[in-house]
Amino acid sequence: MACAMIPLDEQQVTEATGPLGKERTLPALHPDRKEERCFVTYKPPPEDSSPAQVEEYLEHGKFITEDLDWLLALRHDKFWCQVVFDESLQKCLDSYLRHSPRGLDPSSLPSSPAVADMQRCIHRAVFMTFLRMATHKESKESFITPTVFGEIIYNNFLFDIPKILDLCVLFGKGNAQLLHKMIENIFTQQPCYYGDLDEAVLSVLQVLDTILAKCGLQCEGATDLVDLVLYLCDTCTTIQAFLDIFPAACSTFHCHSFLNRLASFYEVAVPDIEKAVRKRNFDDDSLQEDLWRRVCHARRRMVEMAHLLLQHTCLQPILEGSENIQTFVEELLQHFTTFLPEKRFLLDYDEQFPIADDISLLQQAFPLLYPSSTWSHTLRHMFLNESTSQPLSLRNIHIPLIGRNGAACTISAGELESLLTHIRDLLPDLGEGFLLACLHQYNYSSELVINYILEDRLHPDLDKLDRAMPSCGNCEELPPVLSTRSNVFDDDEFDVFNRDQVDMTRVWKGRRKGESVRDLLNDKQHIAEQKERYLTYDTVVDEVIVTPSESGAIDNLNDYDDEYDDTYDINQVGANDLDGDSNLLNRRPFTIPQVLRQGGRPQMQEENIEEEEDEKEDAVKRDQFVQDPALLRERAEARRATMQHRKGYGDTHTKFSYEKCQGQSTETLLDRRKKEAHKSRGANHNRRAMSDRKRNKGMIPS
């Protein structure tokens, strides 16, 4: 039997083996302790409801559920021996993760009730098995050392990133909290999974590039459209489910600029895939409908992925008030400005998650942000260009930015002229109107404009423009001065620029009519109000006369109160308070002001005499439990001299001690005096003062 309160990885068990029953001692986790049992692999439900296939599926599923129920019933040590050393079990679990139907698969809706019930039983048994495999401590007696647990699941490939992604897709609906704790424990006990996740993100980015290539957007060649749509839908659904269940992974995706890559992929690939699905002729109309449904599903999942990344990497730290909040604000606004050229992605994102709501929350957490109405104007402007099929022009869009001092700002006329000059120095043959359109398209970045022009990779809307197009003088109206001014009196009751009506009864020219200086000085109403307040401090009642009619009420006050809290009765509250009244009096005794004294200077002398007497009494009361070392040495020398004098040789020793003291230099005496005067500054030499202070407080007997 295994020992209690010892981790499984350190336990030793004794078992009888062989025909003679010879005992031997083995580690609790050992291959010889594994039970011989063959787990069958999983097969998905049949697409048609033929009796033979249904019966085969039910029998196959019964074997799987019985085996997994047997596994879950094993005690802790036997369960882990079976999980670690039984390869057939891992093949069974992997087959379910690989072949189990997803939400959009036709087999996810079985036609037979018996098939649906069996699928639910297998689904539950597999989930409970993975849940127990991700738990390193089941009870006080059944547990594994956390570090050893991390090594077991990592080295034996019990969990890896693909398995975790499939777990999120299959079991995320309805089990989000349990799945979150399960994955969080896996990443906590084995941080190496973060490195695997980092490599998985790079693989996902390669998947996006592969889809672009197979769409014919980066290389020539025809591909199977059905497989392409299935591949895209499965990838987007899996990544979105994983980020939703385990938000901590968003930071890893964010480090690889996954959000910008996703927006660019959406803008380029989605319209072409939709066009291909609409124009392709299929023999079966249901196949075209299924592909279109999957494309729409992938679109929604990509938008949700972008929202999760923005939510957990930018918005949530801002709303939680994290450090460097301005950095997160700038990063969020930079993402939104990066989305502006990707108009299809931005419109779909705003339709599902309104950007105006995010900007409104951002403005509440960071009041210096530019008003959110500018973003609403931006989106309306983009919708108009989309509906009229005109080139996108961001000329009238005000992009909110954060300056160095934390204040919001926009591109001014001087800055715009500086950007134009910078570009004209390299490309003097381009017109000002064309350059303005390019700057608006690429968020006023002159470097990007120059780079795209030289590489001939401008946006399709910009390629349609005339490169010698002059500037339109009245294209942009300068904002009115009153709307951009800032004043300390903005929005007060007399701000005539923002208010239509002002209370004129509070406005007058010169001295107010009906009032004079004499009336103002004779108004003593404030004195009467203050007099009632100070009268409450005037009367102090030492004794209260009780009438016979009130004696009963007084007796009730003297009764014992069981609810009285006597916690602090025996404690000297304030004994250790440095700011007590006694300390204040010790440091600076109370003195009567000189103008109020009657006797003048003689009284001051009497007070000085009383203070000297008090100091002498305090000196007598001092507890000399730590006395002056010099004084102790003198007393010891005196006692030693007395004893030697009694024995008959005290004169010689006294003379020797006197000569020894006389031989000291003046510098030694001065050093000793300084040491005596300043010894209370450090170490533990101020115990005498602290002892006096405690005795004055009544904390130790006198």
UniProtKB/TrEMBL annotation:
GO terms for molecular function: ubiquitin binding. Residues 598-623, 641-702 are annotated as: Disordered. Residues 415-458 form the CUE domain. InterPro entries: ASCC2, ASCC2_CUE, CUE, UBA-like_sf. Residues 648-658 have a biased composition (Basic and acidic residues). Residues 675-688 have a biased composition (Basic residues). GO terms for biological process: regulation of DNA-templated transcription. Residues 607-617 have a biased composition (Acidic residues). This is Activating signal cointegrator 1 complex subunit 2. It comes from Oncorhynchus kisutch. The gene is ASCC2.
